[in-house]
Amino acid sequence: MEQHAYYYYAVGIVATLFVSFYYSRKQMQKLSTDIETKVLSDMDEKIHDLTKIAIEKPQLIKIVSNVESDVSEEIAFTYHILHSFAHIYHMRQRKVVGDNEWTGWLRMMTCFEQGKIREYWEGGLELEKWFDPAFEEFINNEVVRKTSPKQKV
């Protein structure tokens, strides 16, 4: 009988180790995601600051892009909006943004239907230079397609 007790203790200890390992691994994954999210947010803040400067002085855009010299504040602001949308899209992919917040951002993206941002998106903004393919695909398939002028009533 005493041998069985040692066996049960050993099984209990091993089971406790497995449970501890499982939860510590889960915590490490969450910590890794939190760190990556912080890094992405810091990078987005830097882009935000650079875009603010570009809106104030659009002639400075020539430093990073070989575009015509009469870049307007409108184009600079368009880039700023698109970078904000790209950031929130990536936070959604990382499961940092919940459904409620995401729905609010999707509603904000109706500017593709109401404003001039769609013209710029479909025009010559050099999207491949500034936005990753996943975000471009999302905008083209989920936002632009859904706000197609044919679907307006």
Short description:
With 153 residues, the protein is mainly alpha-helical.
Please give a handful of descriptors for the protein shown.
153 residues, mainly alpha, 7 helices, elongated
Tell me the structural class. mainly alpha
> What number is the mean pLDDT?
79
End-to-end separation in angstroms reads: 81 Å
The residue ranges in which pLDDT falls below 50 over 5 or more consecutive positions are none
Oligomer: single chain
Query: What is the helical fraction, as a range of percent?
Result: over 70%
Radius of gyration: 24 Å
Q: Number of helix segments?
A: 7
The succession of helices and strands, N to C, reads HHHHHHH
* Amount of beta strand: under 5%
Q: Mind summarizing the main beta sheet?
A: none
How would the global form be characterised? elongated
Number of strands: 0
The number of domains is 1
Describe this structure in words.
The protein has 153 residues and is mainly α. The protein has one domain (36-151). The chain contains seven helices and no strands. The model has no long low-confidence stretch (mean pLDDT 79).
Q: What topology emerges from the helices and strands here?
A:
Layout: H1 2-56, H2 73-93, H3 99-108, H4 111-114, H5 117-122, H6 127-130, H7 133-144
